[in-house]
Protein backbone atom coordinates (compact mmCIF):
# COMPACT_ATOMS: atom_id res chain seq x y z
CA UNK A 1 0.00 0.00 0.00
CA UNK A 2 1.51 3.37 -1.01
CA UNK A 3 1.52 6.47 1.18
CA UNK A 4 -1.54 8.02 -0.41
CA UNK A 5 -3.53 4.83 0.09
CA UNK A 6 -2.44 4.71 3.73
CA UNK A 7 -3.56 8.31 4.29
CA UNK A 8 -6.89 7.75 2.59
CA UNK A 9 -7.70 4.68 4.65
CA UNK A 10 -6.68 6.39 7.88
CA UNK A 11 -8.75 9.47 7.14
CA UNK A 12 -11.75 7.37 6.10
CA UNK A 13 -11.60 5.56 9.44
CA UNK A 14 -11.17 8.82 11.36
CA UNK A 15 -14.11 10.37 9.54
CA UNK A 16 -16.53 7.53 10.22
CA UNK A 17 -15.36 7.26 13.84
CA UNK A 18 -15.91 10.96 14.49
CA UNK A 19 -19.22 11.00 12.60
CA UNK A 20 -20.55 8.03 14.59
CA UNK A 21 -19.30 9.46 17.89
CA UNK A 22 -20.92 12.79 17.07
CA UNK A 23 -24.24 10.99 16.62
CA UNK A 24 -23.75 9.08 19.89
CA UNK A 25 -23.41 12.39 21.71
CA UNK A 26 -26.33 13.97 19.83
CA UNK A 27 -28.48 10.99 20.80
CA UNK A 28 -27.39 11.38 24.40
CA UNK A 29 -28.08 15.10 24.35
CA UNK A 30 -31.62 14.55 23.05
CA UNK A 31 -32.38 12.58 26.20
CA UNK A 32 -30.25 14.55 28.70
CA UNK A 33 -31.52 17.95 27.58
CA UNK A 34 -30.58 19.86 30.71
CA UNK A 35 -27.11 18.40 31.18
CA UNK A 36 -24.44 21.01 30.33
CA UNK A 37 -21.78 18.30 30.10
CA UNK A 38 -23.77 16.49 27.40
CA UNK A 39 -24.02 19.72 25.39
CA UNK A 40 -20.30 20.40 25.82
CA UNK A 41 -19.18 16.99 24.60
CA UNK A 42 -21.64 17.06 21.68
CA UNK A 43 -20.38 20.46 20.52
CA UNK A 44 -16.75 19.43 20.94
CA UNK A 45 -17.33 16.30 18.87
CA UNK A 46 -18.94 18.29 16.06
CA UNK A 47 -15.82 20.45 15.93
CA UNK A 48 -13.65 17.33 15.75
CA UNK A 49 -15.74 15.94 12.92
CA UNK A 50 -15.48 19.22 11.02
CA UNK A 51 -11.69 19.12 11.38
CA UNK A 52 -11.50 15.68 9.74
CA UNK A 53 -13.97 16.69 7.03
CA UNK A 54 -11.70 19.58 6.06
CA UNK A 55 -8.82 17.19 5.39
CA UNK A 56 -10.73 14.76 3.19
CA UNK A 57 -10.89 16.81 -0.05
CA UNK A 58 -7.21 17.68 0.27
CA UNK A 59 -6.29 14.00 0.16
CA UNK A 60 -9.15 12.99 -2.16
CA UNK A 61 -10.79 10.74 0.41
CA UNK A 62 -14.32 9.49 -0.19
CA UNK A 63 -16.57 8.77 2.80
CA UNK A 64 -17.01 5.15 3.86
CA UNK A 65 -19.96 3.24 2.42
CA UNK A 66 -20.78 2.37 6.05
CA UNK A 67 -21.08 6.02 7.13
CA UNK A 68 -24.88 6.31 7.21
CA UNK A 69 -25.31 2.93 8.89
CA UNK A 70 -22.83 3.74 11.65
CA UNK A 71 -24.26 7.21 12.17
CA UNK A 72 -27.70 5.68 12.70
CA UNK A 73 -26.26 3.10 15.07
CA UNK A 74 -24.43 5.85 16.95
CA UNK A 75 -27.58 7.90 17.41
CA UNK A 76 -29.49 4.89 18.73
CA UNK A 77 -26.64 3.87 21.02
CA UNK A 78 -26.33 7.37 22.44
CA UNK A 79 -30.03 7.63 23.22
CA UNK A 80 -30.11 4.12 24.72
CA UNK A 81 -27.07 4.86 26.88
CA UNK A 82 -28.65 8.08 28.15
CA UNK A 83 -31.80 6.17 29.15
CA UNK A 84 -29.80 3.47 30.92
CA UNK A 85 -28.66 3.61 34.56
CA UNK A 86 -25.64 5.88 35.11
CA UNK A 87 -23.22 2.96 35.51
CA UNK A 88 -24.22 1.53 32.15
CA UNK A 89 -24.08 4.93 30.45
CA UNK A 90 -20.61 5.54 31.87
CA UNK A 91 -19.46 2.10 30.73
CA UNK A 92 -20.57 2.84 27.15
CA UNK A 93 -18.93 6.27 27.04
CA UNK A 94 -15.75 4.96 28.65
CA UNK A 95 -15.57 2.18 26.10
CA UNK A 96 -16.01 4.59 23.19
CA UNK A 97 -13.35 6.90 24.61
CA UNK A 98 -10.96 3.95 24.84
CA UNK A 99 -11.82 2.79 21.33
CA UNK A 100 -11.11 6.20 19.79
CA UNK A 101 -7.88 6.66 21.74
CA UNK A 102 -6.74 3.25 20.55
CA UNK A 103 -7.78 4.08 16.98
CA UNK A 104 -5.61 7.19 16.83
CA UNK A 105 -2.66 5.46 18.46
CA UNK A 106 -2.94 2.81 15.73
CA UNK A 107 -3.27 5.52 13.07
CA UNK A 108 -0.11 7.27 14.24
CA UNK A 109 1.74 3.94 14.34
CA UNK A 110 0.61 3.16 10.79
CA UNK A 111 1.87 6.57 9.64
CA UNK A 112 5.27 5.96 11.21
CA UNK A 113 5.51 2.55 9.55
CA UNK A 114 4.61 4.13 6.20
CA UNK A 115 7.30 6.77 6.60
CA UNK A 116 4.78 9.54 7.18
CA UNK A 117 5.51 10.46 10.76
CA UNK A 118 7.64 12.40 13.16
CA UNK A 119 5.13 12.63 15.98
CA UNK A 120 7.32 14.37 18.56
CA UNK A 121 8.01 17.31 16.28
CA UNK A 122 4.31 17.84 15.72
CA UNK A 123 2.89 17.49 19.23
CA UNK A 124 1.08 20.70 20.01
CA UNK A 125 1.16 22.00 16.44
CA UNK A 126 -2.25 22.88 15.11
CA UNK A 127 -4.08 25.48 13.08
CA UNK A 128 -2.01 28.71 13.11
CA UNK A 129 1.31 27.06 13.97
CA UNK A 130 0.92 24.36 11.34
CA UNK A 131 -0.20 26.90 8.73
CA UNK A 132 2.84 29.04 9.51
CA UNK A 133 5.09 26.02 8.98
CA UNK A 134 3.54 25.33 5.58
CA UNK A 135 3.85 28.95 4.48
CA UNK A 136 7.51 28.97 5.52
CA UNK A 137 8.14 25.78 3.57
CA UNK A 138 8.91 23.85 6.77
CA UNK A 139 6.06 21.33 6.85
CA UNK A 140 6.74 17.74 5.85
CA UNK A 141 4.55 15.16 4.18
CA UNK A 142 1.14 14.67 5.84
CA UNK A 143 2.01 16.96 8.76
CA UNK A 144 -1.54 18.25 8.90
CA UNK A 145 -2.96 14.73 9.15
CA UNK A 146 -0.60 13.79 11.98
CA UNK A 147 -1.37 16.97 13.88
CA UNK A 148 -5.09 16.22 13.67
CA UNK A 149 -4.58 12.59 14.72
CA UNK A 150 -2.61 13.71 17.78
CA UNK A 151 -5.26 16.27 18.71
CA UNK A 152 -8.08 13.74 18.37
CA UNK A 153 -6.19 11.08 20.30
CA UNK A 154 -5.72 13.43 23.24
CA UNK A 155 -9.28 14.75 23.29
CA UNK A 156 -11.43 13.90 26.32
CA UNK A 157 -14.85 12.70 25.15
CA UNK A 158 -16.36 11.59 28.45
CA UNK A 159 -16.36 12.55 32.13
CA UNK A 160 -13.55 11.27 34.32
CA UNK A 161 -16.00 8.92 36.03
CA UNK A 162 -16.44 6.86 32.87
CA UNK A 163 -14.29 3.73 33.28
CA UNK A 164 -12.17 2.15 30.57
CA UNK A 165 -13.39 -1.35 29.65
CA UNK A 166 -11.42 -4.38 30.87
CA UNK A 167 -8.81 -5.65 28.45
CA UNK A 168 -8.86 -9.13 26.94
CA UNK A 169 -6.44 -10.47 29.56
CA UNK A 170 -8.71 -9.36 32.41
CA UNK A 171 -11.72 -10.93 30.72
CA UNK A 172 -10.01 -14.27 30.07
CA UNK A 173 -8.66 -14.43 33.62
CA UNK A 174 -11.99 -13.58 35.26
CA UNK A 175 -13.41 -16.48 37.21
CA UNK A 176 -16.95 -15.16 37.05
CA UNK A 177 -19.04 -12.26 35.79
CA UNK A 178 -18.72 -10.64 39.20
CA UNK A 179 -14.98 -10.20 38.67
CA UNK A 180 -15.53 -7.65 35.90
CA UNK A 181 -19.13 -6.67 36.59
CA UNK A 182 -21.95 -5.99 34.16
CA UNK A 183 -20.47 -2.59 33.36
CA UNK A 184 -17.15 -4.18 32.49
CA UNK A 185 -18.79 -6.72 30.19
CA UNK A 186 -20.92 -4.02 28.54
CA UNK A 187 -17.88 -1.81 28.04
CA UNK A 188 -15.83 -4.64 26.54
CA UNK A 189 -18.63 -5.52 24.10
CA UNK A 190 -19.15 -1.89 23.05
CA UNK A 191 -15.44 -1.39 22.47
CA UNK A 192 -15.13 -4.60 20.45
CA UNK A 193 -18.08 -3.65 18.25
CA UNK A 194 -16.80 -0.09 17.77
CA UNK A 195 -13.30 -1.33 16.88
CA UNK A 196 -14.64 -3.80 14.35
CA UNK A 197 -16.99 -1.26 12.75
CA UNK A 198 -14.26 1.35 12.30
CA UNK A 199 -11.82 -1.21 10.94
CA UNK A 200 -14.39 -2.33 8.35
CA UNK A 201 -15.19 1.27 7.39
CA UNK A 202 -11.64 1.89 6.22
CA UNK A 203 -11.95 -0.77 3.54
CA UNK A 204 -15.33 0.13 2.01
Automatic annotation (TrEMBL):
GO terms for biological process: ubiquinone biosynthetic process. One of its GO terms (cellular component) is mitochondrial inner membrane. InterPro entries: Ubq_synth_Coq7. Pfam families: COQ7 (PF03232). It comes from the Eukaryota. GO terms for molecular function: 3-demethoxyubiquinol 3-hydroxylase activity. This is Uncharacterized protein. It comes from Tetradesmus obliquus (Green alga).
Amino acid sequence: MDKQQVLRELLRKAHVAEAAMAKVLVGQQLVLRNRPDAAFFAEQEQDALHTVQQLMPRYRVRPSALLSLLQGAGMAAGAAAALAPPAARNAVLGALQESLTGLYNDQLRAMREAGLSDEESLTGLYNDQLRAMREAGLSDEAADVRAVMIKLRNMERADEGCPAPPDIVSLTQAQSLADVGLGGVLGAVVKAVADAAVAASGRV
